Amino acid sequence: MRSFVLADPLDFDGWREAARRLRLAGVEPAEVRFVVGHSRGDLFDEAAALPEVEGAFNAPRAFMETAAQLIQHRSENRFDLMYRLLWRLKDQPDLLNVLSDQDVAEAADRVKAVRRAAHKMKAFVRFRQAEDEAGEHWVAWFEPAHRVLQATAPFFVRRFSAMRWTILTPDGSAHWNGEALDCRPAAEQAQAPTEDAMEDFWRTYYASTFNPARLRPQAMQSEMPKRYWKNLPEAALIPELMAAASVRTEAMVTRPTSRPNDRFQRVRAPVVDRAATDDLAPESLDELARGVQGCRRCPLWRDATQGVCGEGPKRAALMVVGEQPGDQEDLVGRPFAGPAGRLLGAAFEEAGLNRRDLYLTNAVKHFKHEPRGKRRLHKTPNAGEVQACRWWLDHERRLVKPRLILALGATAGLAVLGRKPAVQAERGRVMTTADGARVLLTVHPAYLLRLPDPARRDSERARFLADLAAASAQF
Ligand code: SF4
Questions:
Q1: Quick one: pLDDT at residue 178?
Q2: Contact 475, 318 (CB under 8 A)
Q3: Ligand 1 centroid to residue 296 C-alpha, Å
Q4: Whose CA is nearest to atom 3 of ligand 1?
Q5: 473 in the Ramachandran plot: left (φ > 0), alpha (ψ -120 to 50) or beta?
Q6: Separation of CA 308 and ligand 1 centre (Å)
């Protein structure tokens, strides 16, 4: 038996070169064992030299795809299994179609386990908010069942391309700075933040989607295996929700029938359609926020994760109104949490405004978008949707009573002024609405992000700062 050393557990290139030479030299699988780096210190010194051979051969594409996934499996003998399959393909080109074959079946089981680990990683990574010298940074600790981090990281790049994030695992870490993905050595859990303001969101979200009538503990643990619970904020609720399930099921059975697909209604908020809301008036911002979760005044609630209400002091002197929550705001449930929000926060600082003193909200409370592959592309709300949601904005204005409203962009202008404004012509000066509110209009920060020409972007940013400074002087 000869042992060959690979550089690391995912050293596919090293294995491929060794396997090529061994097969060309006629070295049978039973004579070969692959080991990784120093994982077998005693064998390292005995590692055999690879035979010097000339020539090449083609391995079937299906085998290469299988091998690329098999290598992520944690079993120590996965490289040996890969070589055995490669060796046997020489005489049995259709081997991979023989599902009754023991090696093929073993490989299929392991590939399935790797795919499942990747799927669980996509579902159960939970980023927590942190800060570093460059600002906001999202960090997650995750312990995948197999070594799927490198293969799965591009999914997170596509999904969270606008955030700076890091995923730490015992096998390695992946870092995305907004432009490039960097994979580095193994990390320790102590490097990850343990808690942030998002914990409550995940717990609330899980509680709101937990249906006790459908509780099947075995199926639930298959979908959310216990090994992942310790890093999931919402998992802390599972024992409690399971214990309360029978009581809640009974209550659901005796309750009047509810409308389908109203997931927030079940736990968090009664449905409030247009007819119902016109006669109601929320008495506090908390009540208003609960009402938005059950709102059916327009169709936008259907495809959104949640309604996103305003946040800030109850008596803020300046209310800032944007267009609608974006992809990230929809997920985290807070306004201006995405790239445009970060640009706005920086501009506030330059204009001498403290974000914590301001009430930030949007004209429309649910995210309007259309799917494009795995992405959700922003769509501008139409006039009917803005009009429907204006009911909520008007109540926010009534409750906060700001001295000045800063409207960001045409949609916010429409919601506040009741007419579509000419933003460039009307920006930067205080207008008074029919109900006496003072409004200053400027562009939406997303407009600045979309400008391709750096010189134009700089000049538009300067105009934006001047508008913010004008607002700052008016309240
Ligand atoms: Fe209601 Fe506004 Fe959501 Fe439409 S966008 S469902 S009006 S909260």
A1: 85
A2: yes
A3: 6
A4: 366
A5: alpha
A6: 10
Domains of the chain, CATH where assigned: 2-119 (no CATH), 125-191 (no CATH), 199-254 (no CATH), 274-472 (3.40.470.10)
Q: What's the rounded Cα separation, in Å, for the pair 425 and 204?
A: 44
Take residue 131 and report the two structure tokens written for it. Answer: 């800060």
For residue 16 the two structure tokens come to 């491929």
Spatial CA neighbour of 71 closest among 150, 1, 3, 2:
150
Interatomic CA distance for residues 23 and 87, integer angstroms = 7
Residue 350 CA to residue 231 CA, distance in Å, equals: 38
Any ligand 1 atom below 6 A from CB of 393: no
Single-letter residue type at 30? A
Query: Cα(343)–Cα(130) distance, rounded to whole angstroms?
Result: 18
255, two tokens: 């309750």
Say if residues 177 and 164 touch (Cβ distance below 8 Å). yes
Q: Which residue(s) pair with 372 in the sheet?
A: 375
Q: Is the CB of 295 under 6 A from ligand 1?
A: yes
Q: Which of 259, 271, 290, 297 to mutate to test the pocket of ligand 1 (most atoms within 8 A of CB)?
A: 297
**Burial of residue 371 (number of CB atoms within 10 Å: 0-12, 13-18, 19+):** exposed
Q: First vs last Cα of the chain: how many Å apart?
A: 82
Two structure tokens written together for 374: 């795995």
Q: How far is the CA of 394 from the centre of ligand 1 (A)?
A: 13
Higher-confidence residue: 35 or 273? 35
Q: Is the CB of 369 under 6 A from ligand 1?
A: no
Q: What pTM did the predictor assign?
A: 0.48
* pLDDT confidence band for 142 (50 / 70 / 90): very high
Token digits of residue 92: 């049995």
**Confidence label for 40 from pLDDT (cuts 50, 70 and 90):** very low
How many A from CA of 369 to the centre of ligand 1?
Answer: 14
Q: Which two tokens stand for residue 295?
A: 């709102």
